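Reply to dn_fold:

You asked what the input looked like. This is it:
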Amino acid sequence: MMRWKIGAVTITKVVELEATGGSRFLLPQATPEAIRPIAWLRPHFADESGRLRMSIHAFVIETPTRRIVVDTCLGNDKQGRRIPGWNDLHTPFLADLAAAGYRRESIDTVLCTHLHVDHVGWNTMWQDGAWVPTFPRARYLMGRIEHAHWTGPHDRDDVRTVLADSVQPVFDAGLVDLVETDHVLCEEVSLVASFGHTPGHVSVRIVSHGEEALITGDFLHHPCQIAHPEWSSTADSDADQAHATRRRMYAALADRPVLVLGTHFAGVTAGRIVRDGTDYRLAV
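and this is what came back:
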């Protein structure tokens, strides 16, 4: 568990899973040979051999008026995941969330930056033979464009499975609000369109008392993509658009006092994007 303060807002990271190595399926260009020369990735984001360190975690944004969970990881008891290690998990995520000071009943908003499997899992939990909302007092915010994309025609059984166990049950409970990509959640928190990874992908901007942070979502998965914005993830729906989004976001963030919190960044998780010659790096 890690915490940051942005003015009157507290941001807390609650980890579900962390791993070193095993991410080549996601970023095939990030070979150990390509990673080792990027010295600033060590020790937080890569090991000495060049293997990537990555994390699946949620962020809780606590403002003076709201308690918002951003992205709900993989979830327990879920089946039919394409990655075998993501099936039938039994992690202490909810206990860790409560230990951080956030009982699930105290959350008033759940925000999904997009609807991939590792961002919606704890939307629901298995209880009395059914999938029920994990956060019963929360409104679940999902992008209108994003939802339309994933519920439209496609031939992916794994997507249908994720929708059935982690998305549709909160719709059935009447807890979902479909929102636009520039939606304002409250005075301090708003959405920023960052398309490419998915058609309706958003990042999350937090501003309070003159301080600012950005939760990335998956417009980049790992800090190595700051050094190499041309490295697109195999999970990107539009690799060219994802590359353009990274270029645009880095240029907008570079050398500004904006704390960038990576949705899959392990270790220290947060830093500021600065110029590094003609490229960029994450200063932690």
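The chain has a mean pLDDT of 97.
Hope that clears it up.
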